[in-house]
Write the structure tokens for this entry.
Amino acid sequence: MKPWNPNIRVQAEPFDAAHESQRLTAGRNDVGALVTFTGLCRDEGGRLAALELEHYPGMAEAEIARIAAQAAERWPLMGLTAIHRTGKIAPGEPIVLVVTASAHRKAAFEAAEFLMDFLKTKAPFWKKEHHKDGASGDWVDARDADDDAADRWS
Amino acid sequence: MRPVKLRYFAWVRERVGNDEEEIELPDGVADVAGLMTWLAGRDEGYAAAFAEPDVIRAALDQTHVDHDAPLAGAREVAFFPPMTGG
């Protein structure tokens, strides 16, 4: 039950969420549910000029692949795309994309949420804030709420 | 003694002052926790990076591990803060 490979990319360039969604359903009539999640850079009340995303090349792709494989074991998915951007990202721009395809909505919704919970807590990416006043700000702290969200799947 | 590549990310990298280096693993340093203790004794930057070892995450050959993981056979050891991607 897995004649497909997840589409995993780590890239500096923006992505086109609509195009990525269409790729998972193009030419097939068996997909009944498609969930697309896009994570965006917030301006944090106007004080943020950009987020800078550092990553561990090689491990980032490998870790996302491990998370995707777990999702594919757990839910009857028909396709999966995960794209994470790196480098400087301005408020309003997309950072991360997860798309899941399945026959029914429950699997697609749950798998997308699972992927995001583990992308946030296991994939080796770190955010640094750049402030509008020109100051290079702090590294973003990991949130306990994100760990709790990931823990509920175990 | 054997060569190991060390990699540092985010504020661990900034405090160490280097993103990667090759070291000879000293005899007696057997696991991730032992390596952090040894690194912390090298200079002020390393001491600052590893001042709170419980906070630091580690990976051996690009796979997450706990601090009691043995270093035997590992070619690349990475240290970094908790992840904040997504």
